[in-house]
Amino acid sequence: MEISFKDKVALVTGAASGIGLATAKAFARAGAAVALADINADAARIEATHLADAGYRAVGIGCNVAHLDEVEAMVKEIVVRFGRLDVAFNNAGIQNKLAETADATPEDFDRVMGVNLRGVWNCMKAELTQMRAQGNGAIVNCSSLGGLVGGAQRGNYHAAKHGVLGLTKSAALEYAQRNIRVNAVCPGLIWTPMADQMVAGGQKEALDGMLLAIPMGRHGKPEEIANAVLWLSSDAASYVTGQSISVDGGFVMR
Ligand SMILES: NC(=O)c1ccc[n+]([C@@H]2O[C@H](COP(=O)([O-])OP(=O)(O)OC[C@H]3O[C@@H](n4cnc5c(N)ncnc54)[C@H](O)[C@@H]3O)[C@@H](O)[C@H]2O)c1
């Protein structure tokens, strides 16, 4: 089975770092023209320039996924530049501030929901408008093991990531007969700058505890999520829609 994205156009949000960056690079290597979108516009443009310098087709776009107008402008820019949008990985996400529910703030709830759930909704809305018009598409949303199980002091994050799966299944139903597939990936503990931030924020002990609970006994690599995203986005997964794949070393199966 060969997975190729030759002549396809792919969008990755949160593409300046971690899982998003690894996936954007994988799409480029598989032949796609890639748009790297990130709230950190400079970093997205620098990473796109590296890909372009290596001979790939890539553009970096500044975009805060929490704002629908920015997301719509981003999709428009991709279509102007590359002519279409075949594949999108809605990956941008942030952590919540650790707090049990009675102590969590409305501001943190709105901040996390705004990026992790509304951000995915914004992206799907703009992407599906384009994909519906062109008559094809594949979307992969980034949920989490937090979309499948609860997490003490992480309610805002886990609620958003559960919500991503609801949006995924609903859109998959809507477009199942219109040549557009919508799936999700649920990463486990993947070592990225987000994990570094968690350590810096005093969560090292919690991460060490999680590591002990991973059946494979190790963290995942961003490239291992990218592999699942590329398969779900490709024609090799042509009969797969509305699904979430856990890529977590076996964490949630226990
Ligand atoms: N790393 C893990 O262990 C893990 C586990 C499960 C799920 N995830 C999910 O994977 C995704 C990527 O995480 P990561 O570990 O690569 O994180 P990361 O922090 O390395 O990268 C996230 C990227 O998203 C960008 N971003 C943040 N807010 C944004 C916004 N409003 N608009 C556009 N871009 C924005 C950041 O600038 C950054 O480049 C997230 O959705 C995260 O929740 C990660």
From the structure above, extract its key features.
single chain, 254 residues, alpha/beta, Rossmann fold, 7-stranded parallel beta sheet, 8 helices, 48% helix, binds nicotinamide-adenine-dinucleotide
What do these coordinates show?
This protein is α/β, with parallel strands linked by helices. It has one domain: Rossmann fold (3-Layer(aba) Sandwich). The chain is 48% helix and 15% strand. The chain has helices at 18-29, 41-53, 68-82, 106-116, 118-134, 155-175, 193-212, 222-233; strands at residues 9-13, 33-38, 58-62, 87-90, 137-142, 180-187, 244-247. It is globular and about 45 Å long. The relative contact order is 0.14. Nicotinamide-adenine-dinucleotide is lined by residues 13-14, 16-20, 38-40, 63-66, 91-94, 115, 119, 142, 144, 187, 189-190, 192-195. Nicotinamide-adenine-dinucleotide (NAD) is lined by residues 13-14, 16-20, 38-40, 63-66, 91-94, 115, 119, 142, 144, 187, 189-190, 192-195.
Q: Could you give a short description of this structure?
A:
With 254 residues, this protein is α/β, with parallel strands linked by helices.
